[in-house]
Amino acid sequence: MSDPPTLPGRLKLSLQSPQPTALKALPGAGPATARRLKDRGYQDQLDLLLFLPRTYRLTTRFCSGDLIRTRRPAYLEAYGEVVHLSRPGPQSRAPFEVHVDVDGARLKLLWFRLPFRGFDRKFRMGATVHFEGAVDYDRGGQIAHPTAKVVGSPTPQAPSMALEPVYPSIEGIRDSLLFDMIARALDTLGPHLKEGVPSSCLNGQEFPGIEAALRTLHVRDGADDAEALSQAVTRARARLVYQEFFDLQHALTVRYIEERRAARAPRCEERELGRDLVRGLPFPLTSDQKAAIASIADELSSTVPMRRLLQGDVGSGKTVVALMAAAIAIGSGVQVAFMAPTDILARQHLSRTEEFFDGLDLTWGHLAGGQPAADRRAVLQGLESGDIPLAIGTHALFQEGVKFHNLGLIIIDEEHKFGVEQRQALLSLGRDPHLLAMTATPIPRSLAHAVFGDRDLTIIAEKPPGRTPVKTVLRDSSRAPRMWSYLADRIGDTGEQAYVVFPLVEKSDAVARRKSVIEGAEALANGPLKGLRLGVLHGRMAPDEKAAIMDRFAAGDVQVLCSTTVIEVGVDVPNATMMVIQNAELFGLSQLHQLRGRVGRGTADSLCVLLTSGPLTDDAALRLKAMVDSDDGFALAETDLRIRGPGEFLGPRQAGLPEFRFGDILGDAPWMLAARRDARRLLLGDASR
Predict the structure, then answer these.
(1) What's the predicted TM-score (pTM) here?
(2) CATH number of the structural domain 274-460
(3) Per-domain residue ranges for the chain?
(4) 437-470 in b/e burial notation, b at 16+ Cβ within 10 A?
(5) Fold agreement between 76-156 and 274-460
(6) pLDDT tens, 441-483?
């Protein structure tokens, strides 16, 4: 699958027929004004129409003296007669004051800095002034820096309410000029705007047309029913958000169709090996697992290549679903490549394969960096000849020299840890193979549809029965001695096991207070955990060293495993019931949740201790509180997305995340889901995929 360099994100308007759209065509838009707008990214009048207000204010227009005496209008527009002037001297810091009388009610207009030279000379006693601004009644009816000008006799009008736009300020451009420019551009171009969204989708959402939406957002309007007008503004903004999301989902759906149009994937319809696997499982499948397997089996039976993302929280049973897909493919005569980002996770899948496929007539091979040359050569020969139908490994699966006889299905675990190029390299090893990507890092559905919208999405939310919830507590370093004493007693007396996670491999002077696994393990072994059997694991160890220490931990020879985040995924030791995360404030929320998922995999009560050192930032405090309050990976993912934003949430490896002008992937999630549904219904005739 090839990703284009960019996808639609920021909303762009277009016209049904050519019209002049240069900014200089607008009255008042001189070279300096046009330059300031272009510096902010607004190149022409169409762009200017999308310069939306940052908020709205409820204004009492043509306000009367009686209303002013009620002290209620917070923002008003009125006419008044000048009854007092106070011009400060050249060296004075006092404000310029104009007192006005509005039907017997007095207001004080003041400017601490005059808008322009000679501004104060425009006012005189007895003159009529048209003004507007926010009133501070606690300071005697004071309006600081109002918009004001001397006018002739006003035309009497009844007071009314209006909802008025307040635009982000642009230095050097008056609000009144900005409003006039947008209003003129809308009058000129509004009738010629293309809708951008099919009428069937607009009608289905009960959205206004694009011109009506922009007029609602920009133009001052009467507010006799302020609530109704506020709802209209909300709906108009939603119209623009929906169109942004629809543009993206339409492009992703087109890519989805085009990728499959010419491809001919192998048809995998043989289910007997999969049935044998299910019969041999020591546990029943959950309803979510059964539904996921049914969807995957249906797609594998087609010549249209499957492109499915399987999401599931820690311990939800994704591996069994993946192995069922592998069994269906292998039973149909094609090969399967099962790739993981780390050798520890690959070995875990290898162990699960041996456990679940035990007794079945099936051969598999393991490819990883650093393995003996003879072992690697035997696996490569088996893959090329077709004698090995299942290969499990790391990046070594798509390195030079790897050839498959008939690769029909690719399974990628922890899919978000791989870049686009790596996925492409693996796909190129077969002829239109099916692809099943998995992640145990829950991604909010709206973000998943924005990034992986050209794939089908399956979520396993249900956890297998028997999993014990993990209690999570937050402790600072002052309480560490009591915590270590508790761990020593618990592990020593019960025969259970524990993890202690460190952020660093070795001590570094540049990162004060951060614990390192090598020094930390030594201090624990000679101190509070003396007498227990400790092991050390980190990413700099050779693969065979890591495998050996993990085997000892799984066998119970190691009671406490001191490790870096290398155990984040792929470690499944049911006897491990306690975890201590050192410097927990340094870890991301998703990473903390993944680490916690290493305990609670058996039936015994499990505990995760978040141990902090030093003061917490606001973000760190939010992350740690969320960890204590919830063990729901999808809820935590939404919290993480709010804290970090989508770019940081996904990490630097993920390419193609659009930048939206109006839409918020999390806050506007319902519109992302609606846009995906409508785009797929329009192009596929089926919104369920």
Answers:
(1) 0.75
(2) 3.40.50.300
(3) 1-62+158-257+663-689, 76-156, 274-460, 470-630
(4) bbbbbbbbbbbbbbbbbbbbbbbbeebbeebeeb
(5) no
(6) 777 777 887 777 778 888 898 877 767 789 999 999 899 999 9
